[in-house]
Amino acid sequence: MFVGRAMGADAPPDRALPSSNQNPVVVSFELRQGHIMAPVRVNNSEPLSFMLDTGYSMTMIHPDLADKTSLRRTGRRITIVGIAGEEEAHLYEGAVLDLGGASYAPRRVAALPSETGRRRRRDGILGSGFFRRYVVEIDSRAKTLKLHEPKDFQYGGQGEIIPLKFRRDTPIIEASIGTPKEPAIAGQFEIDIGCDGALCLGADFVETHKLTEASGETRNRIRQGVGGDASIRHGQVLRLQLGQFAIDKPAANFFQEGSPVDRDLAGHIGWEALQQFRVIFDYSRRQMILESYTATNIPEKPAPKS
Description:
The chain is mainly beta. It has helices at residues 63-66, 128-133, 203-208, 211-214, 271-274; strands at 7-8, 25-28, 30-32, 35-42, 48-52, 59-61, 72-81, 86-93, 97-99, 102-104, 109-111, 124-126, 135-139, 144-148, 160-163, 165-167, 170-178, 185-191, 199-201, 219-225, 228-236, 239-242, 245-248, 251-255, 267-269, 277-282, 287-292. Strand 13 and strand 14 (144-148) form a beta hairpin.
């Protein structure tokens, strides 16, 4: 199963297509092996299946589809960094993506040569440019995306608003995990919804806080991603704290060497941890909003002063 950080170095900025629609576009998605898969038409193609992934800076397409969707190869390449190495990808121009009437035109898309001729698990990936183009609301229970125009979006709910920082194009939050010995270990975590796990923690962070020992029983596993495989120990931590929300006993992958993120970060938080919330990514305002499906768990906001 693909997992881990992957980003393009020096990814070119995307361009926005004009829209006169002030209402959000609603798109149904499929949850496939822990991944959010949305129907996308590329240059009026038949519906293709694209994975949503905040961990990617580039929009990706399977190389077998580049010619079929009339993309123009630029002759340039970009480096995609994965959990165990890196790979150069070819760049293409001329893609217009459509999701239920919402249009998105990335300046360039990338294709990994190593995927040529392989059985397709997905047709492409919607990376950070897509999340910058729209305010993306993900409802895992209804299995729908709501795509809001950033200029028209105003949040009026009672969810937990968590500030986002960005390193290159990847969103980062402050969060903490707990163990029986250390109830609150603070750190900076990437948000990577392309990861089908709950937590992936880098080897330095694991060693500093002795997390493998503190988590109790663990099992050896291999995680696959761009650049190769990574050896991990699989277990759980006592708690993951996201603002006022606590997730009890989330599964965790403890990297034995290296990290799925930059070495000064703790690790990343994947979709398994976030799917119990309605999640809104608002990159334009640098915030992620979590709404609990259990009304009693929604933190109360103080009434405005008159």
